[in-house]
Specification:
homotetramer, alpha+beta, 2,3-Dihydroxybiphenyl 1,2-Dioxygenase, domain 1, 11-stranded mixed sheet, 4-stranded mixed sheet, 18 strands, 14% helix, globular
C-alpha cells in the first residue's frame, strides 16, 4: 500500500479477507485494482466488462464452444462485482469477464460537490491518477493471441508493429472501441506474463509531477517520454517490493472513427519506438 | 476564413463550388466542417456518422417508418463523403447521416512523421484545436426531442438538468457512447436554432492560449471557465462576421462505463451552472 | 486557518502568542505571512527585506530625515526575524523593513530530497502556491505615494495606468528589480487600505486547480483570467470569515532589462483592464 | 537558420554583413543571439549587460587593472548595441560587456496589442521560446574561474557541485541576482569551450511540444527531464549543421532572497545529477 496508495495515489475502497480494493480518483466503478497478500508477486487476472448484462453468459457459452475451460465467480465473491467468468488463454493470460459492478460511494467529506465527479480532487493524493487506461501483456505467440482476441472476444486492432524481418512485435487493441485497452507484446518466454497497468493523468505537467513524487519516495522510475505507437506520453513507476509496474499515461489519442484502419508500423519507419525520451522497463511478472 | 482558419486554426482541406472544407489538426476524416457562401448566416446541417456501412440505408427506412421525409445525398456531392441521407427534426434541426468519409491526405510538408497523426502540429496554427467535440442546439420541445434522439437515432443520455420548477432545461447526449456529442438546450423560440460547435484542446494552458489568440485578433470571447455539467473547461469565440460560435473545450470526462446512469442535476444543486468562471453566449443562429 | 492552510495551502510554520506563522511551499524564508487573532479583520503591516544587513539602520535614518516616525522591532519579536523598523506612510500604509530572516526548517518527513527545495511538494496541499508574489494596496493620493516609494524606498516603476481624463489609476512597482512587487491603486476613500496578497502558482492548469479547490470548499472566488497590466494570470479567493483576499498568480513576465522603460497605459488602449476573463474583487480591508 | 529560426523558433530581427540577429519572442531587447557565417562552427562571444550606463567604462578600467586586455567595440558595430568592451578569460572564454541595447521594433502585423509584450505569440513559431535564460561553459580550472567571476565581474554563486573526491565539478552563478545565468562545468580539456545556450519555455507541456517539433524536423535531441541542480526542467536540441546546442528550459526556481546561501551538493547526495529523465549532451564547441 506504500506504493499503490501513498505513492501512486490510488484510493483504498475497502479491505476484506486479505484483499485490498483500489480505485483511481475519477473512476465511476467500485474498484479497478485489487491487491491480495501472497507469498510471491504476480497478477491474478485481468477483468473485462461487457457492454450488456446478458453478455457474460453469452461469453461463457462462446468460450466453451471454443474449447476454453471457464469458471464461474459468484456475485460478491469479488466485492462490488456481479456474476463473472474466469478462464485462461492458450499461453496463460488469466482473464475475467463481468458486467455488474457497484458504483463508488466515497465518504461524505471526500465526495465532490459536482454530481459528475466522485472525489474532491483536492482532498486526494496530489498525484492521483484519473482512471485505468490499459494493460500491457507479453506473449510468445502474439499473432495467434491477437486474432483470438479479435475473433472470440471481439476486440479491434488499433495499431501494430512489425520488426524488420516481418515478424510481429506488438499489437495494440481496443475493447471499448475508442482507445487502446490492451497492448500485446512479443516475448520469447514460453508462457504469458504481465508487464504493466496504466492509469491516466491529465497532461504533461502531471507526468513530471508524478515522476517527482516517485523520486521523493525513492521509487524507481523506468522512463519518461512519449511512445511513437499510441502517442501516449508516459512515466513508469515500479513497486520496489513486488516488481509491479504502473504507467502514468496521458492516454494518447482517441479513436473517433468507426472506419478506423489499423496503423501499420514497421521497425524501419522511425529511428526509435519512443518518439520522445526513453523507456527501459523490461521486467514482467507472472500470472 | 479569417475566423475559422486564421483565428480558430482549422485546416483548409479543399474548396469547391463556393464551399470550403475544414478539418481540425488531429482528425482522421476528410473534413469536420464546411462553410458555404450565402446571403445570410446560418447552419445548413449537422452530420452523424454510423458505426457500420449498412446503417445509412437502415436509418433511411427507420426514419421513413417514423414519418420523417428523407432526401438522399449522393456519394461525392459533399466532397469526401459517401451516400448520405438528410432530414429535419420536428422543430427544424437539419441532420445528415452518412458512413463513408475519405481519409485525410495532407500535403507532404505538413504531414507528421508519426503514422498515427495527420499533421505535424508545429507547422499548423499555434492554436489548432484537435478534433470536433460536440454541438449545442436549442429547441422549444426539449423533452420530446431528447426522447426521439434516444428512441429513433439511438443516442444515450449522459446528463440532464432540471429547473427548480421541474421543467427540463438541458439534456446532454452521446452518439459515440463514450463522450457527450450533443447538448440540447431549452429555448422559448418556436423553432430550433444552433448555438455552437465545440473543438477540443489538450489542457487549460491551451484554453488560455486560444483566448489570447482571439484577443490579439480582436475577436469577441464569450467566457472562460468550466461548466458544472460535463465538467468541460471552455473558452468561446464568436465570428464577428457571421455570429457563429466556436467553443474551445477540453472535452470534460469520458464515459468508460457501459452501465452509466445519467447524472440528474437540479437547478438547486449548485449556485451556478458554471463551476468556474462565466459564460455569456446566448445568441444562436438559424438553420 | 481553514482558509489560509486548508484551502490556500500555506504551510503552518509555528504558532506563538496568538500569532500563526505561514510560509508558501517554495519559500526559503521562515515565513511570509502571519495571522494574529483580533476582534476585527485587518492588515497589521507589509514587510520589505533589504538587500544588505546595514540597510535597516540606513533606512531608519533616511526615514527619520524625511520626517517619518519609526519604531524599532527587536530581533525575535516577530519570530525568525531580526531587528526591524516599522512606520506608516502619509495615508496610513503600515510598512516594516528588515533584513535578517531565519531559513526554513521543515520536519524531516516533509523535507525534499532536493537540497534546493524546502518541502516535498507531493506531501503538501495539492494547491500549495509557490511563493509570495506581490501585494495590492489602495490609496487616495497614488501619485504622491508612488513617488515616495521611488524616492525614499528606492522602488522602480514597471507599469502605470492613466484614466481617460489623464489622472493616474494605478502604478505597479518593483522592489526586487525583476518583477512587480506592489500595485498601488487609486481609491477615493480618505485612508489607505489593503486589497490582496498574491502567491504564485506554476501555470494555467494550476489556476484552474486552485479555483476548483475553492469551489469544493465553497470559498468565494472573485474571478479568473489574465490582467492586461503585468500580464499576470489570476484567480482570486476570499476568506469568508475575514474578507482577506489571496490571489493565485502566475507572476506575469520578468524584468530582465536594467534599462526598463515603464509601460505607460491609457484607459483607451484596450477595451478592458482584463485581457482575459473577468475580475470583481473591490472590497479592501483596513490596516 | 533552418535550426535557429524554423525549428527553435527565434525571431529574425535583421541581417547585415553576413550576420543574422535573433531574438526570442518575449525579449525586450534588440537581439539575444547573433549568427555569423564562418568556415568552422564556434562561439564568438558571450555578452553581459551592466546595470548602469557608466559601468561599461568602469569594467574597462577594472579589467585593465586585473591585467586583462580589453578591446572596445564601437556603438553600432554590433547592430542595436552601444559602446562595449571585449576580452577573454585566462583559459579563453570570450566575453563582452555592454549597457546600451535598442528596444525591439517588430513589424506592425506581428506586434502584440498588449503594450507589455513584444510579439503576438500566436503569430510566431508555435515553439517560440520566451527569453534567453543562461549559458553553460566548460573550463579546465573551474574554481579559479568561478572566483574570478565573483571577485572581478561581481557574479554570485547560487549552487555548486563537488565530486566524491572533493573536487569541484560545477558552479552555477547569477549575474542578475535572481536566477542562474551561467553554469561553469569542469572539463579536462586545456582550453575553455562552450556547451549550450538556454532559452525559457513556460511549462512542462511546452517542453514536450519543443521536443515534438525537433522530432518532426529530424533534429537530434539530447534528453528530456529535470536537473537536480537548478531544478530546471529541460529538453536539448542540437543543430545538425554546426553542433550548437539549445536548451529549452523552464528556468528552475528564482532566488528571491538577498541572503541566499549557495546550495552545496556532493556527488553522494543523490543517485544522479538528473532528478528526472536523462541527458547525454557532452559535445562542446570552441570559441
Amino acid at each position: 500500500m506504500t506504493f499503490f496508495h501513498d505513492a501512486i495515489g490510488l484510493e483504498e475502497v475497502t479491505r476484506e479477507g486479505g484483499t485490498v480494493y483500489l480505485r483511481a480518483a475519477d473512476e465511476f466503478e467500485h474498484h479497478s485494482l485489487t491487491l491480495t497478500e501472497t507469498d510471491s508477486a504476480g497478477v491474478d487476472h485481468i477483468g473485462w466488462q461487457t457492454r450488456k448484462p446478458e453478455q457474460v453468459a453469452e461469453y461463457a457459452d462462446l468460450l466453451t464452444d471454443h474449447g476454453v475451460d471457464i469458471t464461474w465467480v459468484d456475485d460478491g465473491e469479488e466485492l462490488g462485482q456481479g456474476d463473472a467468468i474466469r478462464f485462461q488463454t492458450e499461453n496463460g493470460h488469466q482473464f475475467e469477464i463481468y458486467y455488474e459492478m457497484e458504483k463508488p460511494d466515497p465518504p461524505e467529506e471526500r465526495r465532490s460537490r459536482l454530481k459528475n465527479r466522485v472525489y474532491t480532487p483536492t482532498k486526494t493524493n496530489p498525484i492521483a491518477p484519473q482512471h485505468i487506461d490499459h494493460v500491457q501483456i507479453w506473449e510468445p505467440d502474439i499473432v495467434e493471441l491477437s486474432e483470438w482476441l479479435q475473433d472470440v472476444l471481439g476486440l479491434e486492432v488499433i495499431e501494430y508493429y512489425n520488426l524488420e524481418d516481418g515478424s510481429r512485435w506488438g499489437t495494440w487493441l481496443s475493447a471499448s472501441g475508442f482507445k487502446i485497452d490492451v497492448a500485446v507484446i512479443h516475448d520469447d518466454a514460453e508462457t504469458a506474463t504481465f508487464n504493466h497497468t496504466a492509469y491516466t493523468v491529465d497532461n504533461s505537467n502531471d507526468l513530471f509531477d508524478a515522476y517527482d513524487a516517485m523520486k521523493e519516495r525513492e521509487i524507481p522510475v523506468d522512463g519518461l517520454g512519449q511512445h511513437s505507437i499510441s502517442r501516449g506520453k508516459f512515466c513508469y513507476a515500479r513497486d520496489p517490493l513486488t516488481g509491479h509496474r504502473i504507467e502514468f499515461s496521458d492516454s494518447g489519442y482517441f479513436v473517433l472513427d468507426p472506419d478506423w484502419e489499423p496503423i501499420a508500423w514497421n521497425e524501419t519507419d522511425l529511428e526509435d519506438r519512443q518518439w520522445m525520451g526513453g523507456f527501459d522497463g523490461l521486467e514482467t511478472v507472472d500470472y
